Amino acid sequence: MRHKPIRIAIGAMETCIALSAIGGGIALLLGTYQDGVLIEAGGNARFPLEWLRNTPLSDYTLPALLLTIGVGGSSLLAVVLVWTSSEMGAFASMMAGLVLAGYIVVEVVLLGQGISWIESLYFELGLLITGLATYLWATEFRRHRFHHQADVGRKKGHVHR
Q: Is residue 158 part of a domain?
């Protein structure tokens, strides 16, 4: 397994993201609404429904599901695959990083409240994971795939220039 330090870095970041996204999404899903404010389960965080006024959403169910399944699930899958299936792990990590960054962009744009430090951190982590996973894929697998295709073409009598 080449590039082990990169795999460790990707795996560590994706583990943290998976745990926080799944935990945060579940806390939102199990939260209670009081006077137009969602109070997350087990925490002190409050999410006023007023924040959703200029969005197509009426409550926090869909964002919580997307956070849990989309962001958390893709990161969890990627961290498993980065250790068990080299090429699929690199690709899954690229996608998980993009899902995270995309989720943050949509959240910031829809809510229109500016960017907090935590949103900035998660956005940057998504881009960092995507970049590291792209490097991993390009250095370990892309070259192999192109050489393999050229060898197959030569065996069939095709000339690659």
A: no
